[in-house]
Amino acid sequence: MFRLVLVAAAWVVLLIAAALFFTLVIAALPGIRAAGVGALVSATWDPNRAQFGVLSFVYGTIVTSLIAIALAGPIGIAVALFLSELAPRWLAAPMGLLVELLAAVPSVIFGLWGLFVLAPLMRTVVDPFLRSSLGFMPAFRGDSYGPGLLTAGVILAIMILPTVAAISRDVFQAVPRDQREAMYALGATTWEMMTKAVLPYARSGVIGALVLALGRAQGEAVAVALVIGNSPKIVASLFAPAYTLASVVANEFSEATGPTYPSVLIALGLLLFLVSVTVNVIARLLVWSVSGGRPAAHTV
Amino acid sequence: MLSNLRRKAAAVAAVGVLCAPVATLADTQIVGAGATFPFPFYSRAFYEYTKEHSDVSVNYQPIGSGGGIQQFTAKTVDFGGSDVPLNSREYKAAEDANGAVIQFPATLGGIAIAYNVPGVPSHIKLTASLLADIYLGKITNWSSDDLKKVNPGVNFPNLPIVVIHRADASGTTYIFTDYLSKVSSEWKTKVGNAKSVNWPAPSSVGGKGNDGVAGSVRNTPGAIGYIELAYALENDIPYASLQNKEGNYVLPSPASVIAAAAAHPDVSWRNFSIVNEPGKGSYPICGYSWVMVWKNQADPAKGKQLVELWKWMLTDGQAYAAKVKYVPLPKNVQEKAIAALSGIHS
Question: What average pLDDT does range A174-194 have in this prediction?
Fold first, then answer.
């Protein structure tokens, strides 16, 4: 009986996912037909004139989520290591709680904070500094208005930091004591214990946290819409305004009318789904190849 | 007829059952959905109306004009709200679903051109062609001679212009691009008129909602953006005076918006644009927000309440528009809208 309930629960999840995908495909079909294959290689978004080029949205989605994971990944893992290995108990508990609270802040709050506080800061301090120090790269050249790819990436990094930190901390705490003590017994320093015992043991869990965080960054709509500058263009500069798949749907769906326009926006949702899956698969393949073909699970 | 009666009987029975234990529940529930722009006015006015008429409750969901049209056509709401009335194709779809539709304007708004140029005071002068050239990306710096020519004495800095537009599809953008299409043939052919367009200026940034545009304007030196008049009046943000059709420079205000609307009395859903209207005191960028109701009401009692509600909204209710910095309808448009309402069968 108990087994039956568990199996049913598992199937319900699968069925919901399949139903979602199926509905998405059905609703997106007229849009895909109207937009055509050419939409995948065009960056001209002009629904008014039936031009549905999606390339700039895919570009914006990938670039902002990569900036976010590049910033939040190392910091989040460092926070988690500190909380589980170094912090005294009186500090670890309240600090851990604060990290988890950060995950409960609604995304529109992050977005508004980003628009009114972070964007001016980026325009006046961060972007000019990057331009003067790293300006030899095209990514750090050009005008900065505040809202843009980099600002959106930083906001996303702050938003996914709790996901990375909280899950990684739980994973680190699940590493058996024996592992650490064995390392110490071999004369390892705390640093060596963390890098040679805790991290390898917890690797699959940490990767899971990063993949989950990456997914959240790709799917975030409202906060990004407020700080990315919402401009469907592909520009090399990270300071430039851009657009993401999720934020264009959030911005335009409520006012989309006509036979094809709403359907094209649903197709963008489907595309986001495919982009997420592709990026996840690439991420897992990368990890798999780095770890020498061993399964990502328990390697110790 | 018979099924109608039966439905009515069932409805009465259902209401009776529902109301029995809760005496304070309103007898008639009127539900609407649509445009976000008139929501502050509607929610205030509906609140006042239901205070006086305890047998009615009104619920308006500000889900956007597109959603309003969809919900109305699907008959899930009693009235729909939209910043742009149903076009011929949408009207046909609604007509096929439930017969003729009556559309009338319920409130009025203007669009202010806000800017952020350090050292430049509020109320600089802009002409239609200057505004179009800025949004086309042809004038890219505040120190442009064209700007200096119409603003003698204003000391413009050497600062690039950042063009801010609405990122979310909106009636505000529709009215703004309607204006630019009317005054610039280049805009009309290159960009056109819609709730969201492909913005041509290279240095353009999209803000989400009025607050997004206003926030970006305020944060970015050199920025220019279009926002709803009520929003500009309630926030301390510099805005321009625009040259109208007669050549006068007019500031956006409830009075100058009413003047523009009154100059176009024969407004209808086929002829609803009131941008660039004649008249010495007319502000050139204005528009109505529209309401859609079915001509044939299935439930006569509810239909009667619906007509009563909108008659009040178009007359006494207009007083609450000014309280939330919205613009009341001019008298001639009010009368026309009320006349349209009397065509409802219930």
Answer: 90
Report the residue from B66, B196, B198 with minimal CB separation from A44.
B198
Mutation target among B168, B211, B213 for the A interface, most CBs of A within 10 A: B168
Among candidates B169, B198, B203 on the partner chain, residue whose Cβ is nearest the Cβ of A255:
B169
Q: Do A256 and B66 touch (CB under 8 A)?
A: yes
- The answer to whether residue A89 scores a pLDDT higher than 60 is yes
Q: What is the mean pLDDT of residues B339-345?
A: 86
Q: Do A143 and B203 touch (CB under 8 A)?
A: yes
Of the candidates A76, A84, A86, the one whose C-alpha atom is nearest the C-alpha of residue A207 is A76
Cα–Cα distances (Å) from A166 to A8, A71, A85, A94, A204, in that order, read: 30, 16, 14, 13, 15
Is B204 part of the contact surface with chain A (CB cutoff 8 Å)? yes
pLDDT per residue over B68-117, tens digit each? 888 899 999 999 999 889 988 889 989 998 889 999 999 998 999 999 99
Closest chain A residue to B93 measured between Cα atoms?
A: A258
Subunit contact A254:B63, Cβ cutoff 8 A: yes
Which of B65, B197, B220 is facing A146, going by the closest CB pair? B220
- Chain A residues with CB inside 8 Å of B237's CB? none
The mean pLDDT of A273-293, rounded to a whole number, is: 79
A179 touches chain B (CB under 8 A): no
B335-340's contacts with Cβ under 8 Å and 24+ in sequence apart are B336/B104, B336/B265, B336/B266, B336/B267, B337/B104, B337/B105, B337/B106, B338/B311, B338/B314, B340/B102, B340/B103, B340/B104
Looking at the complex, does the CB of residue A178 fall below 8 Å from at least one CB of chain B?
no
pLDDT computed for residue B118 by the predictor:
94
Place A298 in a pLDDT band, splitting at 50, 70 and 90.
Answer: very low
| A244 vs B26, more confident | A244
**Interchain proximity A257–B212, CB inside 8 Å:** no
* A229 neighbors A147 (Cβ within 8 angstroms): yes
Q: Is B73 on the interface with A (CB under 8 A)?
A: no
CA dist., res. A254 & res. A269, Å (int)? 14
B154/B176 Cα distance (integer angstroms): 26
Q: Are strands B286-294 and B204-207 parallel, antiparallel or unpaired?
A: unpaired
Question: How does residue B345 score in pLDDT terms, banded at 50, 70 and 90?
Answer: confident
B346 has pLDDT over 80: no
- Is B51 buried (19+), middle (13-18) or exposed (0-12) by CB count in 10 A? exposed
Q: How far is B61 from chain A (nearest CA, A)?
A: 12
What pLDDT, on the 0 to 100 scale, is given for residue B64?
A: 80
Q: What is the pLDDT of residues B32-61, one digit of tens each?
A: 999 888 888 999 999 999 999 888 999 999
State whether residue B212 sits within 8 Å of chain A by CB. Answer: yes
Give residue for tokens 């509607």.
Answer: B42
- DSSP per position, B8-53: HHHHHHHHHHHHTT-TTS-SEEEEEEE-STTHHHHHHHHHHHHHH-
**Check: complex ipTM more than 0.95:** no
Distance CA A110, CA A159 (A): 8
A123-140 pLDDT, tens digit per residue, is: 999 999 999 999 888 889
The answer to whether residue A96 neighbours chain B at the CB level (below 8 Å) is no
Residues of chain A neighbouring B216 (CB-CB closer than 8 A) = 115, 119, 145-147
Q: The whole model's pTM is what?
A: 0.82
Q: How many residues does this entry show for chain A? A: 300
